[in-house]
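User: Fold this; tokens only.

Assistant: Input:
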Amino acid sequence: MKQSILKNTPPLSQFTSMDKKIKPYVYGIEMKYSRIIPCSVLCFVIFWGCAVPLKRLEIKGISTKIEKDTIISGKTGKTISFHDMVSDLLDVQIVYIGEQHNNSEHHKIQLKIIEELYEKDSKLSVGMEMFDHSYQPILDRWYAGELDEKSFLKKVHWYSNWKYDFKLYRQILLFIKENHIRLIGLNIPFHLPPKIATGGIETLSHIEKQFLPKEIDTSNAEHRAYVRDVFNRHHVKGREDFENFYMAQCVWDEAMAESIVHHIDSSKIVVLAGNGHIYRKFGIPQRVYRRIPISYRTIYLAPVGTRVELSDGDYIWATAARYKKHALR
């Protein structure tokens, strides 16, 4: 059912379990606000001279394990070249690229795709989960080349809002600035999802409700089951109501979908968001498509040593499983 905010009716990022079954988690609510470290952050002690087994990605239904830097078509289950994937991406209007926020290799891949698409389409835009849309005037100044890095970080309150090490995103944002690529803030203010998760939409102030999406769809049973699984794995005091938790994630995804639609024109948009927001398309992609049926593709970045399914994305890219821990966590 679709619910109206006006009537006050009532977060990827991933974590990896010990059986190597990959499961993206609801980013914003799980990690950022509850400050719960996902169980996928494992510490490995490698002694000098010891042999380290080569990790590969497991894909359900495919007997061969996939090596790092291999791209698999979610449609055919076969390996596809970077060139052929990009050729396909050129034919759609929105390209969603997922990430584990603290995996530096994922951001290198995102930049590689952006560079390739920009070379062939200079009208490209980039939308990022990492900024809420109230910062759009500052983002406009950044890609216009009017702000230096220090001023930019202060004005967008980077370490108050997003908190991850800016170095993870620095090369992407510098490329955007140097080439004057339109940068779009997709998010809502970061304090709103945790408020909804713990107290429900009805507890928000009138001013806070003005940032919420006009329409919220909570009817996707597969999405609900996925979020419930996340909810059941993490017990946080004050966040015992699943319906509030689920509403918070739907608000998050709907708000970013609404921001994308607001900025849609004839140019292509690359969307950078946590894996959980593009996983199986029921986060942001389907919610954009419900509003405006335009072509898109999803690229799901999956670290080796984990297990995924072909339905997780239009393209599955096996990546390094290297993490960069944020200094504040």
